[in-house]
Design goal:
Layout lengths: L1 E4 H15 L3 E5 L5 H4 L6 H5 L4 E3 L4 H13 L3 E6 L2 H4 L3 H8 L2 H4 L9 E6 L14 H5 L5 E3 L4 H14 L3 E6 L6 E4 L12 E4 L4 E5 L1 H15 L5 E5 L2 E3 L3 H11 L2 E8 L4 H12 L9 E5 L8 H7 L3 H11 L2
Parallel strand pairs: 2-3, 2-4, 4-5, 5-7, 6-7, 10-11, 10-13, 13-14
Antiparallel strand pairs: 1-8, 6-12, 9-11
Helix pairs in contact: 1-9, 4-6, 10-14
GO molecular function: oxidoreductase activity
Organism: Nitrospira defluvii
Keywords: Oxidoreductase, Thiamine pyrophosphate
């Protein structure tokens, strides 16, 4: 085991997949530009050539459609969208084509494409460069959606996504790129649909996605100093999400806080809350709390950003509220 940054773990997964499987190729905007990709794709074009690491024009729809077509013919493309906001221009090929193709042809055709979408936050980037719209894609049958929070999962989930055989949205958060953790050198998979217990506890279940999973650990440490024992669940996958693990944890604690750094209305947190309330209402000792972004566009002021984005502070408050 070595320690790698989140971004370098993603880069290693790409390199090993490209080296191992000639069907794998990478296409997208800025795949050769550290301003777009950080170190997550650094020098892959020099190592594998520009026929397999393709810097595409600014045409999200055409690029994604071409990759989906290649996947249908048996290739294993990874499409890189450096800003999730503009991936919405590719919603048609993702939702209408990739998600439905296998169903329309009775399982005779698969679409093994990975669509990597990067969430950008902060830095006064504003409403069109800071959106986290994962719930939109998790709503669609036929798509899988993963959101790694650690370097280990960043590598393992990318490998699993490429090998899955179905269209998978792989969503990474730029705020995690410099975080470090232990990562095996060999190729390995993290199962899609499997959550992880990051901290065991008996008082409250705190389930979180991506960047918020890292913040949840900090919140739990602060609450522990006050004698509150929080169980932290890193969801890792949001379509499918690990109902068994979440339900088991809530059955033990009786309380649930869900943290997802996306808008509060109609989001992943709302889906999980509705499922828990509908399926194991008898286990709940208190109302479910959600820690999400307010229903407003991201501001372009640094001061307003501090009020807009949520993290450990808001999770601490939510946990304290469900314990009242």
């Amino acid at each position: 085991m070595r320690r790698l940054s989140y971004a370098r773990a993603i880069r290693e997964a790409h390199a090993q997949l490209l080296a191992q499987d000639p069907r794998v190729f990478l296409i997208g905007q800025g795949v050769r530009n550290p301003w777009y990709a950080g170190t997550s794709l650094q020098d892959l074009d020099k190592e594998f050539g520009r026929e397999r690491v393709i810097d595409s024009p600014v045409s999200e729809n055409a690029t994604t459609g071409a990759a989906i077509g290649a996947a249908i013919t048996g290739m294993r493309p990874i499409v890189f969208h450096p800003r999730m906001d503009f991936m919405l221009l590719a919603a048609d090929p993702i939702m209408n084509q990739a998600a439905n193709w296998s169903y329309l042809f009775a399982g005779q055709v698969s679409v093994p494409v990975v669509i990597r979408a990067v969430i950008n936050r902060g830095g006064e980037q504003g409403a069109q460069h800071s959106q986290a719209v994962q719930a939109l894609f998790a709503h669609v049958p036929g798509l899988k959606v993963v959101m790694p929070a650690t370097p280990y999962d960043a590598k393992g989930l990318l490998v699993a996504a490429v090998r899955d055989g179905n269209p998978v949205l792989y969503i990474d958060d730029r705020w995690l790129y410099e975080s470090e953790g232990e990562v095996p050198e060999a190729l390995y998979e993290v199962p899609i649909g499997s959550a992880a217990v990051r901290r065991s506890g008996k008082d409250v279940t705190l389930a979180a996605t991506s960047y918020m999973a890292a913040q949840a650990g900090r919140a739990a440490e602060r609450l522990a100093q006050r004698g509150i024992d929080v169980e932290v669940i890193d969801l890792r996958s949001i379509k499918p999400w690990d109902r068994n693990l979440v339900y088991s944890s809530v059955g033990k604690t009786g309380r649930l806080v869900i943290a997802d750094a996306a808008w509060v209305s109609g989001g992943i947190a709302a889906e999980i809350a509705a499922s828990v309330a509908g399926d194991i209402f008898h286990a709940l000792k208190a109302p479910i709390a959600r820690v999400c972004l307010p229903d407003a566009p991201a501001p372009t002021s640094a001061v307003l950003e501090q009020a807009y984005y949520v993290g450990a502070d808001e999770m601490v408050s939510a946990v304290e509220k469900v314990l009242l």
